[in-house]
């Protein structure tokens, strides 16, 4: 963890409000319904993501299905082209969700979005999907971000 990430975490541990509900687009959630999307920290929208910092992502959603598994898939959409955006933990069942996922149940999917130092300073749209046993989207969300140094 670098100094800036450390400071942000410390700031959050001191009890400041770091999570901000962000405006998002639903890109085809079929077996679930998104309630809120929180990015921490994101004081202004679109969220400014600093290189070398990991951001907290917290998606609150309701599930319409029973699913043993859940797998996250993240893309950065740059000029209309989806590019894979690697995240450390793809298993949704290890990201704040107790599996099996129950029908008509509310969940908080909590994960980190690491912004690598070698990423370019650009605006892009993050697309985050969580897929169920049948490869259908429990949620699919899109939100704009700006990568800054
Ligand atoms: C995620 O968001 C929900 C709803 O805003 C909140 O109740 C929950 O505490 C958050 N979880 C984490 C780990 O931030």
TrEMBL record:
UniProt cross-references to InterPro entries, sorted A to Z: Ig_E-set, ML_dom, ML_Npc2-like, NPC2-like
A GO term, aspect molecular function: cholesterol binding
Residues spanning the signal sequence: 1-19
GO biological process: cholesterol efflux; intracellular cholesterol transport; nervous system development
Keywords: Disulfide bond, Secreted, Signal
UniProt keyword Disulfide bond, yes or no: yes
Annotated MD-2-related lipid-recognition domain residues: 24-145
Any single GO CC term annotated in Swiss-Prot or TrEMBL for this entry: extracellular region
Compartment list: Secreted
Keyword Nuclease attached: no
Family affiliation: Belongs to the NPC2 family.
Protein name (database record): NPC intracellular cholesterol transporter 2
Natural source organism: Gymnodraco acuticeps (Antarctic dragonfish)
UniProt lineage: Eukaryota, Metazoa, Chordata, Craniata, Vertebrata
Encoding gene per record: LOC117549959
């Amino acid at each position: 963890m670098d100094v800036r990430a450390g400071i942000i975490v410390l700031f959050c541990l001191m009890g400041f409000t770091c999570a901000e509900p962000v405006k998002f687009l639903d890109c085809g959630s079929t077996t679930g319904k998104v309630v809120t999307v929180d990015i921490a920290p994101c004081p202004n929208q679109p969220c400014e993501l600093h290189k070398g910092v990991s951001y907290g992502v917290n998606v609150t959603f309701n599930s319409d299905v029973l699913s043993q598994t859940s797998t996250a898939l993240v893309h950065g959409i740059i000029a209309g082209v989806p590019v894979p955006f690697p995240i450390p933990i793809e298993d949704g069942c290890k990201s704040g969700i107790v599996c099996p996922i129950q029908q008509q149940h509310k969940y908080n999917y909590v994960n980190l979005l690491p912004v690598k130092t070698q990423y370019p300073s650009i605006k892009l749209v993050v697309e985050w999907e969580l897929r169920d046993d049948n490869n259908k989207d429990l949620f699919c969300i899109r939100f704009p971000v700006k990568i800054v140094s």
